[in-house]
Structures are given as C-alpha cells and as structure tokens.
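Ticket #4471: structure export looks truncated?
Reporter: QA, pipeline team
Priority: medium

Steps to reproduce: submit the single chain below to the structure queue and open the exported record.
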Amino acid sequence: MDTNAVLDIGLDALILAAKLAAPVLITALVVGFVVSLLQSVTQIQEVTLSFVPKAVAAAVALLVSGHWMISELVTFTHELFDRIPQLVGG
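Actual output as written to the record:
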C-alpha cells in the first residue's frame, strides 16, 4: 500500500462525506436564512423560533435523502472492499 492509494482513499472519503452532508446542511442553511429574514422583518427574537424549524427541516431532509445516502455509503464500502487485494499487493 503506497502513499498515493492512501491519499486516493482519503480524498474519496472526504468527497463522499461532503456529498452526504450537503442535503441536510443546505436545507438547514436555507431554512435558517428564511427564519432569520422573518425574524428581522417582524422583530421577533425568539431562540426556539430559529431552532425548531431547522431541526424539523433537517429531519425531513434525512427522511427524503436517507435512502440515497445509505446506497452511496454502501457503494463506497463495497468499492473499498473490492480494492483490498490490490492494496495489500495480492
């Protein structure tokens, strides 16, 4: 196992982590922006008003994209297991 293989696996893992985190993070970002805009317009400064909608939206995003996330993770894991013989030199 050489340095290039380790870096390649690490890069693939980081890209996968970014792809898996994107739906939840983007959803929370958009909902947070909308709630923040609403709070600015109405001048209602309530902490739970900003937290609860983001938590609900993140849960919905996980429900919607959960199957895709699991399939991507399983595919990545299968690819890693398939690469084991060439990584150990066999």
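Status: closed, not a bug. The export was complete when the record was re-opened. Leaving a note from the reviewer for reference: The chain has two helices and no strands.
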